[in-house]
Amino acid sequence: MRFAFRQLFKSPGYTLIAVITLALGIGLNTSMFSLMNLLILRPLPYPEKDQLVRVFRTTPQNPRNDHSAPSFIDLRRESADFVRLAAYRQWGYTLTQPGRTPVNLSSLRVSADFFDVLGVQPAYGRTFTPEEDQPGNQVIILSHAAWMAHFGGDPGVVGRTFTIDGLSTTLIGVLPENFSNLMLWGPGDAFRPFGLSEQEKANRDDVGVQIIGRRNPDVTPEQLNARLATIYTNLADTRPRDQSEDGINAISLQGSTIPPGTGISTIMLLCLAGFVLLIVCGNLANLQLARAVSRGREFAVRAALGASRAHLLKPLLTESVLLALTGGVLGILVTVWGNEWISKRLSENLPVNFDLSIDWRVLAFAVGLSLLTGLVFGLAPALLSSRVNVGEALKSGGRSATGDRSQHFMRNALIVLQFAAALILLSSAGFFLRGMKLLLTRDPGWTPAGVTHGIISPPAARYTTPAQTLGLYSSLEERLRALPGVENVAIGWMAPIYLFPTTRTFVVEGREPPPPGKEPVALVNAISPSYLDTLRIPQLAGRPFSNSDHHEASRVVMINESMAKALFPGENAVGRRLSSGEGATRVTAEIVGVFRDVGMAGNPSPTATPYQVFLPLAQEPWNYVAVMIRSSQPMTEPLRQAVQALDPNIPVQMLNTADELAKTGIRGMELITKIFFAFSLLGLFLAALGLYGVIMRLVMQRTAEIGVRMALGAQWRDILTLIMGMGFKLALIGAGLGFLGSALMSFGLSALFSGEAGIDLVVLPLTTLLLIIVALVACYLPARRATKIDPITALRAE
């Protein structure tokens, strides 16, 4: 060990370069592993977590659907002997405190045994009792983050009453800090009892309830799913026709936190970071080989004195591992910086913090990766260096002690490998940059520019009737239209941004209904009459909604162009009728208009525009709507002031321009693109540096040969071509192999952005050309130096 340290201190320049590049490579890989740890590996903080499950309703289109409240009640009743089921649903409440601006609490309504099923005890106070799980019980539990944000972490607030949605509500508990989980509960600021009304208990069309459970220890996951499937099949007659063929599937609660595709995306990032480390290893392996060549006489003397090959191998491997471990220690600092940057980017538009802290799994990965890296870049040079021909080495002064042919082959193979990896990194970044451009320039079918957006949620406890709710919306529209610079105002369930769209199934009146589960599914949005004009959505047929389409008028709808063509090919859709729901909830409406397909402006999904149905807001008012203002300048503050003037207890959420909000849907893609771009630039630089170093060493080793060639009449162009040809040939072979790997990457990434797999014939040639240009520059610099060699000086030195 001490000998290895002495050797490294003898070459401080080499040691410093090796440690810095290793720190970058190991640090970047560990940072990507931290992201995987957060999204996939970190266990949930609940006791006996292996028994926890999440129960989904499955359809051919989606394996992860929510349930209706009656379905949850039926399942819980029928399965009580082998699993304890609890339910929750996303909700929103408004907290009002004297002298403070009202704030929205992103909340969950939960069944009384929700926390018992999870095995969670509050940090302060208590959880809900069965008696509190009834309509009208005004109790609430806060998350640790909400308690800190709104009450400064004061334990004394537990047991006090506060105004929630205009009603006096008692805070009965505060959850532990580690309870929060964005993938499961969302931001989860507050929790209230489910308190299902009789109407909710009977409404099987409202599928917004999520189910978790704890299976009995003696019930295996397979047995649980088999029993639940039997129960669900037996209950098929109780469900609406469009749900009668649905299935059910219980997966581990841990597994349910991983959205489909997340694992693949994270692993892909880790692999690409691995390419950077592979290039680092290639450079260091070449440097180690060069150092070993310079120490050939030393190895020969030690071998002549009786040192075995293992004794020669040991110090070389020890040096490599010491370098890698030192780089790993500094790499932890790179990881901390990288994690802070990623966490900040992820949290920019979400009211949560992403915990990318370094735990034992991340540390173990960093240590293991450091050891592996040391072996990867140190083993081959060490094996070559320890294979000593003593007589030849001492005779030649050590310059050929390690076998020139083997060294030459290894150097060439490493350069080829580095350039192949660099092209894969470069092309991947190019695919994402091109894909981001497609997303940003895709025509969404409406005009986000010039639109200000905000969401309001009038408390249902105070706005108890549709007339009250619609009166508030009407007054708000009038107040906003009167402001200078406002062109138009609209209100709807949602803006066409990437914001949790609602879906329903529809059938055409007068036709044979399709088989259960095959009904057309459409995005549904209830809108005010000025919605199309405000967002500049073209009307293609029929009429827009008007003030006469009120709650007591005949039901009407508008459908998008894709739905009209699919359901009524070659026909006029206007005047036809659609129905949705069954029994008491069945609604039939006349199609009065057709509008152009509206894409979600921030939706990164490459799938075709789905069917879309607009309803008059006056016929289905919600206590949660988006307000949109088209104006000559942003109206964020005037919108807030207008709402406060009408009701000071209503906060405005997601207050921003539509352009900015649309970008939130592709924020993750932007982050991945930036990471890819950074990886590609670093990989390209390191590969070019490695090629430059190899060619420079060849020039130094062949100085005498170059001198002889020039003395015999070779021109500088001949020398330039000779030297550049050595490296450029290797770069071309690496580019060819990298082209094949990049083509495979192109298939996956092009499908991600455009919906169709294929080879990107724009990015691949351009990135290959860029790599070749960089290779030419890396070869030209040492080749140019070779042309300036003085033949006399070179021959005299030899």
Name the poorly predicted regions.
398-403
Share of residues in strands: 15-25%
Rg over C-alpha atoms, rounded to the nearest angstrom: 34 Å
Mean pLDDT equals 85
Number of helices: 25
Number of domains: 3
Largest sheet at a glance?
A: 8 strands, mixed
General form: elongated
The count of strands amounts to: 22
Distance between the termini: 37 Å
Q: Assign a percent range to the helix content.
A: 40-55%
Helix and strand content put the structural class at: alpha+beta
List keywords for this structure.
798 residues; 22 strands; 50% helix; 3 domains; 16% strand; eight-stranded mixed sheet; 25 helices; alpha+beta; six-stranded mixed barrel
How is this structure best described in words?
- This protein has 798 residues and is an alpha+beta fold.
- The protein folds into 3 domains: 49-256, no CATH class; 261-322 and 362-440 and 667-797, no CATH class; 458-649, no CATH class.
- The protein has 25 helices and 22 strands.
- Strands 13, 14, 15, 16, 17, 18, 19 and 20 form an 8-stranded mixed sheet that branches. Strands 2-3-8-5-7-6 form a 6-stranded mixed barrel.
- Helix 2 crosses helix 13 and helix 23 runs antiparallel to helix 24 (763-787).
- The model is unreliable at 398-403 (pLDDT under 50).
- Pfam families: FtsX (PF02687), MacB_PCD (PF12704).
- The chain crosses the membrane at residues 12-41, 267-287, 321-342, 362-384, 413-433, 675-699, 719-741, 761-781.
- One of its GO terms (cellular component) is plasma membrane.
Question: Could you provide a short overview of the structure?
Answer:
It is built from 25 helices and 22 strands.
